[in-house]
Amino acid sequence: MTTNTHDASSTPGVLQSLHDGVLTLTLNDPGTGNLVDAAMSASIVHAVQTLGDDVKAICLRGTGDDFCAGRKSPTPPKGGAVPSAEKLRHLVAEPALALYDAIKFAPVPTLAVVQGRAHGVGAALACVCDITLAHEGARFSIPELERDIPPALVMAALHDRVPLKTLAMLVYTREELSAAQALAAGLVSHVVAAQAFESTAARWLAGFAGNGTVALRACKQYLTHAPSMSATGASAFASHVIGTALSARY
Q1: Spatial contact of 126 and 132, defined as CB atoms under 8 Å apart
Q2: pLDDT, tens digit, for every residue of 200-220?
C-alpha cells in the first residue's frame, strides 16, 4: 500500500490529517473535554463538504481523556436585550444541525473513535457516524434537561440512528450509559478493552485505506438511501449501485 500522509487545513480546535485516503478530524480542546463551539463546527462542516475525490473515509475523534463532553453555550448572556427566536435559531440550531447533517450525509464512510465522555453534542457526534468504536471506559449521556433545555437538536440527529426507546430514556432520565450499556442499547457498534482500542481503530482505518474510493462511496450511498426505499426499490437501487461501481473497474 502506498502511504500518503499530510496535514490538511487544521485549525486550533480541529486538527485535520489525511493518511492513505482517510481524513481524520480530531477535536482539540482537551482542557474543556473537547467542548464544541461554532468555529469548530464550521471547520468540520467545511472539511466534509470540500472532500477531495481521493478521500475514502472520515475518522472523527478527540484528544485527551474525552471524545466530546458537549457544546460551549452559543446563547447570549442574560442581562442584555432579549434575543429573538430567529436569532436564537441562527446562533443555536443552525450550526449544530449543519454539523450533524454534514457527517450523516458525507459521501464516504464515517468512523467515530470514542473514549471518555460523549455527552450531549458528543453523543450525537459519536452516534451519527456510520460506525462507532467505543473504548471500554467511554460514557454516553444526553443531559440537557438538567438545565431545562429540550435536546431537540441531538434528538434530530439521532432519531433515525438509535432505537426510539433508547433515545427517550437518555433524554428523559439523563442517565449516563457505560460503553457496554451503550452497545446493548444500540448507540455504538463495538466496544474494545483499553489495550486494544488504538490497534482496533488502526486496523479498521487500514481496511478503509485498502479499498477503492468508488466501492466505499457506493456502499455509503446505498446505506444512506436504501432504508427509506421499498423492498423493490432497494433491490433496483442495489443493481444500479453495483453496475456503476463495476463499470468504474474497466
Answers
A1: yes
A2: 999 999 999 999 999 999 999
- Identify residue 19 by its one-letter amino acid code: H
CATH number at residue 23: 3.90.226.10
- pTM above threshold 0.85: yes
User: Residue 100 has what pLDDT?
Assistant: 96
Domain identity same for 188 and 125: yes
Residues 176 and 229 in one domain: no
- Helix (H) or strand (E) holding 75, with range, is none
Residue with cell 443531559: 143
Residues 120 and 232 in one domain: no
Mean pLDDT of the chain, nearest integer: 92
Residue numbers of the domain that contains 112: 5-209
Triad 227, 232, 235: Cα angle to 5°: 70
Sign of CA dihedral 181, 184, 188, 192: positive
Q: How far apart are CA 34 and CA 64, in angstroms?
A: 8
CB count, 10 Å around CB of 73? Answer: 13
